[in-house]
Design a protein that fits this description.
This protein is mainly α and 121 residues long. It has one domain. Helices cover 87% and strands 0% of the residues.
């Protein structure tokens, strides 16, 4: 059983850049797993977890960057739609590929917003 409150407390200990980086990593794992039918169960969990990561990050982000906060809300809505469709979509190679592509794009954007790539240079 998932202890969501424990995950939330751990997630919120990190600063905003690390939280966005964690979300980006979750989305990248989703992109990778969605391509394969065997990863369907983990994809369902990542869809839900990513929604929570956005929910927990949103209020702080809205204070600093309203545009990014708005885009994250759009991603959260799309994740919700995918969660609802996933029980059937997971059986379609085409649908898995579509989610994989979208999740990769979301991961790249989120990593860029985090600023963590700049720290490495």
């Amino acid at each position: 059983m998932i202890n969501r409150e424990r995950i939330r407390q751990r997630f919120l200990k990190d600063g905003l850049p690390r939280r966005l980086g964690g979300l980006a990593a979750d989305l990248a794992r989703m992109a990778s797993s969605a391509r394969h039918a065997a990863g369907s169960g983990s994809v369902a969990l990542m869809l839900e977890e990513s929604q929570y990561f956005i929910e927990w990050t949103g209020p702080e982000l809205a204070e600093t960057n309203l545009e990014v906060a708005g885009e994250l809300i759009e991603i959260q809505v799309m994740l919700s739609l995918w969660r609802r469709a996933w029980p059937e979509a997971q059986h379609s190679r085409q649908q898995r590929s579509l989610l994989s592509l979208q999740a990769k794009q979301w991961a790249d954007k989120t990593l860029e917003w985090s600023g963590l790539l700049m720290e490495r240079q």
